[in-house]
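Input (structure):
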């Protein structure tokens, strides 16, 4: 499936020079004396199961599918023992369940290496297992055996397109002289195809981060990365090709209010793109009698960022005053989510009740949506009531910031930090300070978070300790299960871009 045609469909004016960098880390057959970080590709030996005929794999990439009790062998060229070692595989089929993978060396004693516990995952998300380097001689001799222990199929990417210069998504061993990455590692990884996510709110968050790096920091690599990302989703005839959260094709269709955040970046790059009219039509179809765009009777925080903000951007590039005013109205409808010292993900109109109180990523969606919408339209619309509500929300979250600078998954509880929610909240704070909506003293809260986030980078620059997609209900979110996720990198990139 060839989709890499987006550049041919957009006007060159204002885009600068596209220079597509090769940002993948090098690998070689001789890994002796590791300095820095390298990804060593793994060959896959085994017989893959077949995908259901009604499902489609992203970008036409090749998946390897394990059925329960299936085994696959992963082999690499000889590895160095004097390095930190991580096994990586990336999910290729959307998951609404848990997969447990037993990882071992198939030697005579079946040497146990560890367990990969993958729960409720979107596609294009890598999972890793740290391996004790003492096992490298055995791995060099026998390879790595992976067995699926749970009762439903699990699929990982075996191969990406030969046109795509990415080594993150295919099976590999990450070797590094350090167990932690730097900001430079983060930016190099993020400003590439390695940050691509499933189309919708995940990829929209990434695209927004890339746009902010370009527009605020002048990063031409970020602009080139946006082009690379859009090449994966649009063909030469401007058709949108993607799959929903069940791996069902959704070409040229809109998949709910959470799926419309990517169009903020698309409108900036290609304001005349025909899919934007489809977006407006979808918002109209989702609108309630009072004009609130939502998926039903429940008011959700996501709409602040995934509806109000792209609505403001499209309204601005089209000079459509009605859309601009509708964007502000979307925020006003969601005032109810900020109440009594809390930020709530959902308000259930039919029950008059709240759920997901003080969930960090929900707070990020609310505050980032307010901040970006206000910032986008500040020269044309000033609404002090919305600004005041935004500040109230920020004051609420500041009261729950932890001593380490981060916010926990549920900000008022003792569960583990969520780096994605923390980054989004902090980006919103810096936007508010920059635009004069918040006192300058609030900057310190975002800076403290930025310092802490740098401790959660993998050696090659991915972001760890992100709260998993909200598919497993409260039980999953209230626990300490955390993942690597590029959509979290999108929020961290927005924080970086807003820093002075």
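Output (sequence):
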């Amino acid at each position: 499936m060839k989709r890499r045609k987006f550049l041919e469909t957009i006007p060159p004016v204002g885009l600068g020079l596209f220079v597509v960098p090769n940002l993948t880390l090098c690998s070689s057959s001789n890994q002796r004396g590791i300095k820095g970080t390298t990804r060593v590709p793994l060959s896959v030996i085994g017989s893959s199961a077949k995908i259901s005929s009604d499902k489609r794999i992203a970008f036409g990439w090749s998946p390897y599918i394990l059925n329960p009790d299936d085994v696959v062998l992963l082999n690499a060229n000889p590895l160095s023992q004097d390095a930190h070692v991580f096994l990586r595989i990336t999910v290729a089929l959307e998951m609404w369940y848990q997969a447990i993978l037993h990882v071992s060396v198939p030697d005579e004693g079946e040497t146990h290496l560890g367990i990969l516990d993958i729960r409720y995952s979107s596609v294009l998300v890598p999972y890793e297992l740290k391996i004790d380097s003492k096992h490298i001689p055995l791995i060099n001799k026998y390879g790595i055996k992976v067995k699926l222990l749970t009762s439903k199929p699990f699929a990982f990417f075996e191969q990406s397109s030969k046109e795509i210069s990415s080594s993150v998504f295919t099976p590999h061993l990450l070797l590094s002289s350090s167990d932690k990455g730097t900001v430079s590692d983060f930016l190099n990884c993020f400003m590439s195809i390695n940050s691509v996510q499933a189309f919708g709110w995940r990829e929209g968050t990434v695209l927004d981060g890339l746009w902010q790096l370009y527009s605020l920091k002048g990063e031409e690599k970020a602009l080139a990365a946006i082009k690379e990302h859009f090449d994966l989703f649009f063909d030469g005839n401007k058709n949108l090709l993607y799959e929903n959260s069940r791996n069902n094709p959704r070409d040229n269709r809109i998949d709910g209010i959470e799926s419309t955040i990517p169009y903020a970046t698309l409108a900036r790059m290609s304001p005349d793109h025909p899919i934007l009219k489809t977006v407006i039509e979808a918002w109209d179809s989702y609108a309630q009698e009072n004009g609130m765009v939502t998926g039903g009777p429940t008011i959700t925080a996501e709409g602040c960022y995934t509806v109000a903000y792209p609505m403001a951007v499209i309204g601005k590039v089209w000079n459509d005053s009605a859309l601009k005013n509708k964007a502000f109205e979307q925020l006003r409808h969601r005032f109810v989510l900020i109440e009594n010292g809390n930020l709530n993900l959902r308000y259930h109109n039919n029950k008059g009740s709240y759920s997901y109180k003080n969930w960090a990523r929900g707070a990020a969606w609310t505050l980032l949506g307010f901040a970006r919408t206000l910032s986008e339209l500040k020269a044309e619309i000033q609404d002090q009531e919305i600004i005041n509500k935004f500040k109230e929300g920020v004051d609420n979250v500041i009261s729950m910031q932890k001593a380490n600078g981060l916010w926990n998954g549920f900000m008022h509880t003792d569960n583990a930090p969520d780096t994605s929610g923390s980054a989004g909240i902090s980006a919103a704070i810096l936007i508010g300070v920059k635009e004069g909506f918040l006192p300058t003293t609030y900057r310190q809260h975002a800076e403290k978070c930025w310092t802490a986030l740098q401790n959660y980078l993998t050696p090659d620059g991915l972001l760890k300790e992100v709260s998993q997609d909200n598919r497993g209900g409260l039980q999953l979110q209230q626990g300490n299960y955390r993942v690597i996720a590029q959509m979290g990198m999108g929020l961290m990139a927005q924080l970086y871009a807003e820093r002075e």
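Notes: Confidence is low (pLDDT under 50) at residues 6-32. The two ends are 42 Å apart (CA to CA).
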